[in-house]
Structure prediction request, 207 residues.
Amino acid sequence: MPKKILNNIKITLLYFVIFSLLASCNSIPKNTENACSIFSERYFWYKYVKNSSEKYGAPVHMILAFVNKESGFNRYAKPPRTKLFKIIPYKRPSSSLGYSQAVKKTWEQYKNETNNSLALRTRFKDSVMFIGWYINKTHKINKIPLNDSYRQYLNYYLGWGNYAQKAYKTDKKAIIFAKSVKTQSNIYRKQLKSCKKSLDRKKYIIF
Prediction:
């Protein structure tokens, strides 16, 4: 085979590999309701969530449930725009962005307190570390146990001050969301029992 053709084939294959890697990083896992499936498809993610759990004390299954509820594992997730006259797209209701749906102000606080100026809301690694940090702060500020997914999510959704003022008593949406996170967290916890050992033993990352 001529050298020129061989080089062209190599270049084409290289582009294909790069494109595949980028698509893998940007795409949403096939089965977001199964923790073992998610981490089997995205082994890096397991390492990142585990690191957050070990640093901040929040359970792996709970961090994962927060991501699921907040963004559905969509790195570019944003709240839908409001509409003028129910037709014309207008402003978004908040600055929430990324896997964790963190707002700008709280994200900046996280970066400052952790000396992580390069953290990005669209990066899974940074997002799950943020969630772990927030859960740990909730534990310190409002004395919520690290494994209490229901009350932890109420804090995450409402903010520390609003939770302390018991704003959830008049916010039915917050209660519904917190219950759904608790349910999903328990599902993930049970699923991880069957695959955690194999994930911990895994030495090679497969894309």
